[in-house]
Every structure is written in structure tokens, then in C-alpha cells.
């Protein structure tokens, strides 16, 4: 089940927090509850992706994305991700999540999200999102400008560019 109560809590906190710039970092703390674990008694990999929503949505609120979406009738869709799992997170452990936008290209906005415990990174995810309208994907520069920020993206980090280029080589639709 989707963690709606946790989401409501994070949205409530984000609405009362100071605004962030488009490239600033949103930080939040989360607990791995018993319903978040898998049969190996650690944070389930799928649940990890869901919990990262609890960082992205408040980041969007604080940076002005949700206001721009609402005012323009736009939607938002995750269009891809790459996740590294490096340290176990077990029941009742606290993690600090950091979420930030690293830039955008002609189609997508790219975000880097991490979970930390005791000074060590447990998980990192690169995620790209598309802003959508009835006409299709909205150019990120247009979205960022509607948010009140400079529409010019900083250069994407090399590791993000490499992921984008590698993803372009994957066949779509898959050939099965």
C-alpha cells in the first residue's frame, strides 16, 4: 500500500518550510517500518523507490514546481531511474534522505536522491521526470521558467550524461 499518511506528513512539513531554489537540496528523515521490509528483513527495493517519492514531492513543493503544475494544468511522470543499493536498511532504522535537481535537457528534469544512515550512503537514485500536458511532454525550460527560475540548465554532470546516452542505446520497445 502506498504510504499516504507519510506523504501527507511530508507535504504538511514542506508547505511550512522555507522555499528552495531549483538546484537546492531538500532533506528529510524517515524510519524503516515493519511494513517496508522484504523477506530478508531489510528495506524492500521497490519500497525504496516509493519512499523516494517522499523526498521528490516536498522538493517540488518547496521549489515551486507544484504551483507551476497546478497553474498550467500539467502533470508529472517518472520517465526512468537508475538505483544503487549499497548498505542494508533494517526495521526501525532511521535514514536521512537528500533530494535535489541536478539539471534538465530538452525533455526531462534529472534528480539525484540519496538515503544516509550513520554518515554512510545506503542508496542513491538518479531519476528523470517528464512534465506532461494534453499536447505531450512540456519542455523543462518552460517549466522552470514558470517556476520563476532561470530556464537555462546548468551542465548535467558527466555521470548523468553517460546514463542518458546509455539509455538511448536500449531498444524500445524491447525485442522479446
From TrEMBL:
Residue ranges of coiled coil: none
Superkingdom, natural source: Bacteria
Record Pfam families: 4HBT_2 (PF13279)
Listed InterPro entries: HotDog_dom_sf, THEM6_lcsJ_thioesterase
Protein name: Thioeseterase
Provenance organism: Gemmobacter aquaticus
Taxonomic placement: Bacteria, Pseudomonadati, Pseudomonadota, Alphaproteobacteria, Rhodobacterales
